[in-house]
């Protein structure tokens, strides 16, 4: 069963993909589907003996270009829709035992180009409204394949969280005439929550960090998406992403799990999104200390109200000290 | 540092309570702060040798009646507010080694009255806009005290998730003239997702379940909150909650972790909430099978878009078979 179902009590779509129960779950290293194929030997999902960055369709996609018809019939109360979209895998390296932080700098720079390219291609597909590159890293996040990789989802509508941000940015712009993220960048560029700076981008712990060591990496100028970044801006963004992940690992003393996600402009034509879309990359590590996790429980899950017990200024100071 | 900070990029408040880093973390059983105090011996947070249900203020509250002034100065971009509200603990039993499911039936019935009473009292406090009883159960949810207990949070505004539900219910009512949850109950009362029924309440896996074994327990009649339930309705609601938790444990073969939350009417006077508030109790267990968890990662956390790989009809059938 692969379909999208509408939740009329929250005005949200939920995607069901029951074939994903069969997906690979922590395969042993010598059975990794993201490793190179051996000449004359095992064929993995990448039919090459060596590679730098590879993208391809997820074999167990939640959203696909030619989805089956929904199994249930929709009603006025419960609309249903095909699980249309695209789920891509982005393999960072042919080395099973590395991480985003441990890639060479030029590989991270290449990844930014790959993201920009795939966002442009997938976003131009009719019916795709939002494209989000992201990485889930670490077993505590539920990652089932250890080989360093990220994902790119192309959604048929703007997902709830970016939609909320765009609504807030629109309201802010109506009130002040300015972009809220531009104002945030101005407030954070030299303040106590700033972690890293480059000529065209900064990394900071948000004033309102929902996760203790949350960091946002944002271009200083108003750029709606990755494709709008110039050469220097891409270099600076990739440099900060790389330094940040290395600093995370240094501060915690181990390879820090996180969710990283790129939020940019929707790719539909519903309105001119440029004025209210300011590209940002969000890192949300689940750790609140080296030995403890921040769990999402009653207040966060059922209430949507985040409680945090680390001051953003303190997290930023600790991170600054580890950036090297 | 205890304060609320506004996120202008998402139009959300986040609560900071850094003293909570010091809260008790999985104390050994003989040091449990929720166990009875021993005569002439150790004094716990409950100064009684025996009790049924006890409620008291959380010693490490995120929200409190007399919060300190915020440490940072607010700005136009970043408003701040005191962390006003109330966090209560609800201890279910003086027996450290029991669970909600294993309580006697009359104790669960009593808990419904206790929730109704505390929601009324806390909701009448000036400045409190929403009161949510909930239970975080299990180490995988991050529970730090094993003694069976729940919590009640009194928030200074309607939290994002209930606010979203109320907006959806308002839009549905404007469109159809009806309560969306009343229509959901009518659709689920005898269908393939129904798990349990009683004369005045039902339990079902939602059509749009975000978690594989999510179950909602809802009064059949339009009741805005716990206080509006009559005697039979309270008995039926507590009976279904109890049977459901016992069935969960039976199906999985162990004491199933979950977040349980009661969503009812806001307690502020912003509008007449009665027509759009229909009481419901949500259970969201993190397990997608006995050995695997559903993790919230990129799509859910950064996108707000839930992906599920268990069909609600199948989860409901499995649950029905385990209800006894």
TrEMBL record, chains A, B:
Coiled-coil residues: none
Cofactors demanded by this protein: Zn(2+)
One Gene Ontology molecular-function label: UDP-glucose:hexose-1-phosphate uridylyltransferase activity
Domain Galactose-1-phosphate uridyl transferase N-terminal: 2-159
Catalytic activity: alpha-D-galactose 1-phosphate + UDP-alpha-D-glucose = alpha-D-glucose 1-phosphate + UDP-alpha-D-galactose
Keyword Zinc part of the UniProt annotation: yes
UniProt cross-references to Gene3D superfamilies, sorted A to Z: HIT-like (3.30.428.10)
UniProt pathway annotation: Carbohydrate metabolism; galactose metabolism
EC numbers on record: 2.7.7.12
Keyword Transferase annotated: yes
Segments forming domain Galactose-1-phosphate uridyl transferase C-terminal: 170-320
Keywords: Carbohydrate metabolism, Galactose metabolism, Metal-binding, Nucleotidyltransferase, Transferase, Zinc
Spans through the membrane: none
SUPFAM superfamilies given in the database record: HIT-like
InterPro entries, A to Z: GalP_UDPtransf1, GalP_UDPtransf1_His-AS, GalP_Utransf_C, GalP_Utransf_N, HIT-like_sf
Pfam families found in the cross-reference section: GalP_UDP_tr_C (PF02744), GalP_UDP_transf (PF01087)
Record-stated family: Belongs to the galactose-1-phosphate uridylyltransferase type 1 family.
Record-linked PANTHER family: GALACTOSE-1-PHOSPHATE URIDYLYLTRANSFERASE
Protein's name according to its UniProt entry: Galactose-1-phosphate uridylyltransferase
Organism: Frankia umida
Protein's gene: galT
